[in-house]
Amino acid sequence: MTLHPTRVVIGAAATAFGLAAVLSIAPPPQPDQLQAYISMNAQNLEVSPTARATAAQNRDGFSATPGIQTLINGGTNYDWAKLVLLDGGFPMTDANVTVMTRWMRQENGADNWWNRNNPLNNGLGSGGGGGTGSYANLVIAAQYLAANLRKPMFSGIASALDSHAPTATIEHAIWYSGWASGHYANGAHWHYTPVAVVKAPGGAW
What we know:
Layout: H1 3-24, H2 31-40, H3 68-74, H4 77-88, H5 94-108, H6 138-149, H7 155-162, H8 167-175
Helix pairs in contact: 3-4, 4-5, 4-6, 7-8
């Protein structure tokens, strides 16, 4: 029977300690006390009158190159031109894309640029040595065209594309290469009007 009083004493002591702990927690500061604290502990930043602002720092630029799937999803003649440049490791400059789309128009016209899935009438891998062959899809066509442009016989075109050259330089390289037997009449049959953006049928890709 002596255990029960002990339990009561211990329980009462624990309750008293917990109550004391709760009562000992300071109440949150009131708004006027908080403002007073901020005023007493305010910090100032002083700048010397002889200090001079530093010049603006130049930052490195950045760019992004669309990936193969992004270009396939786009599906236009401009996307295919960029795909060729990507496959061939050529810089994707405005001049390079412009010339590629003009070149495609010369070969197959703008409205049917995907004809036979061979936009530039490429003979390599298409089964048509004179450029009359076809490919299973435009992705394969881009790969074969990029490979052909890297061959020694078309090094002039590749060098122009590689060198960030203006459109006139790249086009001259195309005319005077062996790509077309008529050499596009040395440029007389070349067209410079903007090339319309035309999407190929989904099955072409």
